[in-house]
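step 4 of 6: structure.
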Amino acid sequence: SRFQVKHDEL
Amino acid sequence: MNFFRLLGDLSHLASILILLHKIKTTRSCRGLSFKTQALYVAVFITRYLDLTYRWVSLYNFVMKLFFIGSSCATLYLMRYKYCPTHDPSIDTFKIEYLVGPCAILALIFNYKFSVSEVLWSFSIFLESVAILPQLFMLQRTGEAETITTHYLAALGIYRAFYIPNWIYRYFTEGVVDPIAIVAGIAQTGLYLDFFYVYFTKVMQGEKFELPA
């Protein structure tokens, strides 16, 4: 994917 | 974790505790939108499905469980325990108008076209507008109990704190989450009218009343 989004937020 | 995000999370936590405190002490859910609370249950369940397969931290795990548990408990209290104090005739916002467009947006804007990622996007979009039935109800009644306004203020401030958090993370980690950022700014924007009345009236010790 283009964004390395971590999904570590609530 | 940084200072802004911690403040945001604590504000979110506080908002839920204030809400449960209001329901318990007044033994009533008067002035609260059942629809908004039901939307939050949907938001938390669709976003925190990753509890079952992604470990972030103990903090993250406990908070997710708390948000799912407390939102379900709130819904239970409103639906059964204090049911007679809830007046559906003023809680009339059509949530189809929120859920439908959020589902479409999630299908278009997501980080990966998978069930979990589309549901995650959906939860982010839905959270940004989930407060609308509540604000609509407030608009209709024109006034609110002070404790309810504290709840709304804490809930609105929570996402506002995430904005400096994202700026901070961009500079320190190079991380950008455009879906969360756009939705978070929109979410905070929806509260601006409320914040104006809250800070100019309730914080000065006056009752929350909208001009007629």
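step 5 of 6: annotate
 - The first strand of chain B starts at residue 143 and ends at 144.
 - Residues 3-197 of chain B form one domain.
step 6 of 6: archive
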